[in-house]
Write a structure and sequence with these properties.
82% of the residues lie in helices and 0% in strands. The chain is an all-alpha fold. The N and C termini lie far apart (75 Å). The mean pLDDT is 88.
Length: 123
């Protein structure tokens, strides 16, 4: 087996695995019962699925300019997915979409109470 054939086989494996993970993330977002579970399904496997698909595409195309563009897309994905998941979680918490009894440790309530107490004081 030549190097190009091995790269094509590896690219196919990455693309199929990435597609399966992205599909699983989509199904999880639709099927999971609450916001935290849906947020987890939308962030974790989706990011890995996209990264595997980008790696598979880079292996298949074998172009330096395309690979550089794909690397930038991967970096952008790694930077934005955790931030967006965090924002969704905080928004869900503040609007009452998250059940407090499902949380193991609730640091946000203490932070919100401290911020509210500090904001009510006049200088």
């Amino acid at each position: 087996m030549s190097g190009e054939q091995f790269a094509d086989l590896l690219a196919a494996a990455f693309l199929l695995t990435g597609s399966a993970l992205t599909l699983a993330a989509g199904i999880g977002v639709l099927r999971f019962p609450n916001l935290l579970a849906r947020m987890h399904a939308g962030a974790k496997p989706q990011v890995l699925g996209v990264l595997l698909a980008l790696a598979g595409l880079a292996l298949r195309v074998r172009s330096a300019s395309v690979s550089a563009t794909l690397a930038l897309i991967a970096i952008f994905q790694l930077l934005t997915a955790p931030v967006s998941a965090h924002i969704v979680a905080r928004a869900g918490y503040r609007t009452g979409k998250i059940q407090p009894d499902m949380l193991v440790h609730d640091e946000l309530t203490a932070d919100l109470e401290a911020a509210t107490a500090g904001g009510d004081q006049s200088p």
